[in-house]
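User: two proteins, same treatment. go.

Assistant:
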Amino acid sequence: MTDIIDTVQLQSIDDSIIDLFEITFQGASSASLFLTSGMDANLKNIYFPYTDENESTTLKEYIAIPIQMEGIDLSSEGPSNRPKLVVANLISLGRTFASGGLPAGEADEDTWKNLLQDNNINRPEDICGASVVHRTTLLKNTFRAGDSVSSTTEFPKKKYILDRVTQETSIYITYELVAPFDLEKVTLPSRVVIGKYCPWKYQGVATDVDERSGCTWGNGPGQSKFFDIDDDEITGISTYSTATSYSVGAKVKYPTTGFVKIWQAIYPAQSKLPSEGSRYWKRIDLCGKTLSSCKVRFNQDNNRVTPLPFGGFPGTRKLG
């Protein structure tokens, strides 16, 4: 980052600034389209690393096409800026590729055509709601096809949402963009602000992938003790075994690795696996949902090393 900043601060830059655009559709495939504005009239595709949501980095080919972003204004005052994205009419081009009207070049036209078909995109408005990531870098920091993926050097990325079509011709389409938090009925931080209690599902990061819970409690380093809903330590725990007969009140650990749970027998049990809704077991390592509950679990013995994933907002209070 320091190198690229030093370069653009020179009075004369002996390099080209490259604009890269990643458009991710919201349809069934959730695929991304990689575009670049090219270099002057000599349009060529650009290769640059891309990191997906699974933190996997691959080298992507950004298709050179007429595209540019206008009206970017970064300000900390007033309403958020709504820039415009002017791009070649992707729908018309997709139909041309589908009919074989253009010869194949460097760009992967078949992929382009399939992206439109898979996401049921037949008119410019169908792309609205897609996310756009705008990336800028210098030409010397780009790659060539077949290069090994290495660290990237680029300016800070900017992300927007395609909100609406403001102009359309047979040649180009103009979209109005909004910041992800500026959409109608969308709030920041996109969840209800609760001051005293944590809304995260206990151990939800492991048990409820769809809700993306922030609670990472498990049997990791520094998490050897277990507590009940009143934040009292649970003692007398044994490792569950199918060969053992358990009397009422017995406490067991199951599963024994990963995100461990603690159960107490409520009915004499043998070979009855602890599970939610079982008539033989009830789970007793529940969370009190308060900041102190989070501290006693993640900062055991006052180690104060592990950051608290507390999902509430203890600095807020109700007014009025």
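Protein 2:
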Amino acid sequence: MILAADIGGTKTLLQLSRAGAAGLEVLREQRFDSEAYADFESLLNEFLQAARAAGITDITAACIAVAGPVTGAQAKVTNLPWLIRADVLKQRFSIPRLRLINDFQAVGYGIDAITANDMLVLQAGRPEARAPRAVIGAGTGLGEGILVWQQDHYEVLPSEGGHVDFAPTSAVQRDFLAHMCERQARLSYEEVLSGKGLVSLYRFFVQRHGATPLALDFDAAAVSNAAERGDVSAEQAVEMFVRIYGAQAGNLALTSLAAGGVYVAGGIAPRIRERMTDGTFIAAFCDKGAMKSLLTHYPVALILDTTIGLKGAALVAQRLLV
């Protein structure tokens, strides 16, 4: 029996599976509102109590994917006050083998657990076998990871590249940076390529046009919905979001020389699929001066499976049994 967890600032996914010769048989899976719990232990205890009541016991291995940096055997969730310690979880829940990994490490591992039907090709490119891969995804925050071939499979290197300094690539993006820096000293890519970042972009365009904003309690979903209805400020916010997204994906591709492919994950991209596939993203991805011809050869795919991180964590837990 193996436990997989994908912990994010907004939601936490948990899964119990039985490992056998034919692969993994999922026995129980549940989604939780992360902010409704004071800590991960309380959430996990609730899940496992229900599992025990259903006759599911004796977990042999577990992999916990965390949206935040993992240091040694503990991890701090970036957008929650949760500190997760492997030794505490192993002792309290009697799990002999347990590994903590970054959430985008889990996404990277999950690439081998999904099919072509779970992805949408943004650029076919010319993939090189066993070459490095890169994964990037905007959601509550911005996750990134780099995959390198080791023996017979890809291993995933964690990254906090989403927190690097935002670099505008146009006059309007420079105006946006100035707008944001009136309110804070520094702007990272995560503060742009995330749900709250899309809201910030929308507020910027509303102010720029002197327009009437949406209701006071609007969020990223409301902005994307308004863009579909033809709201000019929302349309421009989503367009610039996609353009910045493509530029940062290209930055990561150059940093890692991801000739094996670049994979776009996260919760936002599938919701704005039409915008992601209209050429804006790839144009910004490839717009790297002398490196443009290189990036046009790199495959780029949009991951549609929103449970890829959970599948990756389950794969890592299964490997702990070997």
